[in-house]
Amino acid sequence: MNCSQPHETPCDEVLGEVYRYLDAECENDRTSRIKQHLSECHPCLREFGIEQEVKALVSRCCGGDVAPEALRDRLRDKLHTLMEKQPDVTK
Asked: What is the SS3 assignment for 34?
């Protein structure tokens, strides 16, 4: 996704790290940059909201189980690939 607006941190980069951000796995400076981007980019904020809901749903369904890191990486890669294939609805 790209909203066509200039940002210090590009949209694709922010959305590629949204799960790490939601899991509080980002470094402090990275967390600050993602928060700043989301505060100024409505398309990313909308996408972030969807991701947040998916994470909450998975959390409720899995009862707090923690997936192995390799599985999380594979899922993250697959979701990223699927997001790249989605039509850009911001244009």
From this structure: helix
